[in-house]
Amino acid sequence: xxxxxxxxxxxxxxxxxxxxxxxxxxxxxxxxxxxxxxxxxxxxxxxxxxxxxxxxxxxxxxxxxxxxxxxxxxxxxxxxxxxxxxxxxxxxxxxxxxxxxxxxxxxxxxxxxxxxxxxxxxxxxxxxxxxxxxxxxxxxxxxxxxxxxxxxxxxxxxxxxxxxxxxxxxxxxxxxxxxxxxxxxxxxxxxxxxxxxxxxxxxxxxxxxxxxxxxxxxxxxxxxxxxxxxxxxxxxxxxxxxxxxxxxxxxxxxxxxxxxxxxxxxxxxxxxxxxxxxxxxxxxxxxxxxxxxxxxxxxxxxxxxxxxxxxxxxxxxxxxxxxxxxxxxxxxxxxxxxxxxxxxxxxxxxxxxxxxxxxxxxxxxxxxx
Length: 369
Known about the structure:
The structure is a single chain. The chain has 369 residues and is mainly alpha-helical. It has helices spanning 2-35, 41-57, 66-83, 90-119, 123-147, 153-169, 192-218, 226-243, 251-267, 273-301, 307-329, 335-352, 354-357.
């Protein structure tokens, strides 16, 4: 019973962190699009760089407990709150705030993900539980950030400060800092194709949602920009909840292939923007479910290695993919279409190879069993 209470507290803390991350992500992107000439992909470039740096330097900062990190974040936000009254450049303050919030969320969130993951006996169930919890909080955070995009950055920083003070006050009954940091070994991983596919398919929401926010701004619909942020989250939560205790269907990758191509066709027509968002949200939802299952297969095929190391490999690959394609997206607008086409082709390959790659989870569960 005590263990269950700790896990529930971990999930609550994880929800707070992802909520904060989602709020700052959607607020920053919407604010950048509506008040400056900067590309929203700049936010994703910053996001990706921080993710890589956290993984590179995690060993050096592993002695810090999550509450210490939260207090440092709160103090940093307090300084930014006062600086926002004196500095003229709101965008600089906004981007620095994004750096502080995302770093803290990444550091603490990765440790919590591992604990939630280890608490679930069934491998796909553990991955789905993390995704459901993350998407639910991100959904709320995205909605808050997009709704409040027109409030001054000073108030936004203050709200973030209050949120992190709440996080720092949560007392988890164990030390969930990185006491035993696992670093990535130079050994070759199995199933590199799956790793590449995970990296690419994870980049689609990061690239396409900012692109649609720009279109909402061009159409004078910026106040409705919360829709491309929130709708994929709603669909993800519902679909993953449905899949959590069911056998994964091989037709999901095929559906992804078909709907991706259909979306690319209607994007260049006079189809209403809201319908385009619905189609993209469906594509993203199917992509997330594919990604969760590919994570399961990848970890299973590399089960002789530490799961924490595998999660780091996955995170590094995703961050590098996001960094590369978001940087290109700042200069080549068609890169988002190119990426979606690549993923559609890879999903078709995955559909054809599904039976060969399929994982029998009854023979492979987490160490809790």
